[in-house]
Specification:
119 residues; Arc Repressor Mutant, subunit A; 3-stranded antiparallel sheet; 6 helices; 3 strands; elongated
């Protein structure tokens, strides 16, 4: 588990509420980390490499993802291996899916209006 206070073990307590998941997704850096993890596991150093920020800054992002239940990690030797836990994303997708019919209907109406305006 990532912890901002070094040397203090913190039990994993995923807070996978929709609010916390959407809050975690507000950061472009965290979204990019999740995209990378969707391709497979990676070390913290591998996850940090594309970003022009400090390793502690990336570790803070990983801590947020871990806290909301989107990231799992394990120690292998001196490396920490991170992986994606997509269950909270599925729950967010399911919630958003409730509004799909609403937007499909609105966009269909807009398409019909625009098609009529062209005539």
């Amino acid at each position: 588990m990532f912890n901002l206070q070094r040397g203090v073990p913190t039990p994993a307590r995923p807070n996978g509420t929709l609010d916390s998941v959407f809050g975690a997704l507000t950061s472009p850096t965290r979204r990019a980390i999740l995209e990378r993890l969707a391709a497979g596991e990676a070390t913290v150093s591998q996850l940090a490499a594309p970003f022009e920020v400090s390793l502690p800054a990336v570790t803070n992002h990983l801590s947020v993802l871990h806290h909301v239940g989107l990231l799992v990690d394990r120690k292998e030797g001196r490396s920490r291996i991170c992986g994606l836990r997509a269950v909270p994303l599925g729950e967010a997708h399911q919630w958003l899916g409730r509004y799909r019919a609403f937007w499909d209907e609105r966009l269909e109406g807009l398409a019909e209006y625009l098609a009529g305006a062209d005539e």
